[in-house]
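Review form for a predicted model. The reviewer records the input and the model, then writes brief findings.
Reviewer: anonymous (R2)
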Amino acid sequence: MVRQNDICRRADGSIDPASSGTVIDPAGRTQFLSSSDFTMTPTADSPGSPAVWTSPDTHAGYPVRWHVAIPRINVQLEITTPLPQQEMTTRVGPTYWEGAIDITGTRSAAPIKGSGYLELTGYANSGQSILPR
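Model under review:
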C-alpha cells in the first residue's frame, strides 16, 4: 500500500519539497518517501473518464486522473475515481475534493490493483462558499 502523507501544492501549482508519502508492505513495515522519491502527475482524458472534473458550484477544476511513479520500488500506478463529484463545500474553512479512488498499475512488472482515498485541496478559491448566509 502507498500512503500519501502530504503532497503540498504551492500557489503556482508546483509541488512543495516538504511533500512526502509512506509505502506499507503486506507485513506492515513502512518505508518513508520524500518528495524526490515519487511523482504524482495529473493525466490526460480517456474515454468515459475526464482528467479534470469541474465543480458546477465553485467552478474549481479538480484533477481526477493521476499517474504515480515510485522508481525506488519499481511501482507505476494509475489513479482514477468512480465518482468525480466528491467536492466538499463548507461555510467555514476550505472547499476541497475528497473521495474514493481506484488504483491499477505494476510493481516490478507484476500487475497490482487496489482502492483508496484521495484528498485535493487548494483548487477552489480560498474562503469561497456556495452556501447561503
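Findings: The domain at 37-120 is CATH 2.40.370.10 (AttH-like fold).
Further findings: The mean pLDDT is 82.
Recommendation: see findings above.
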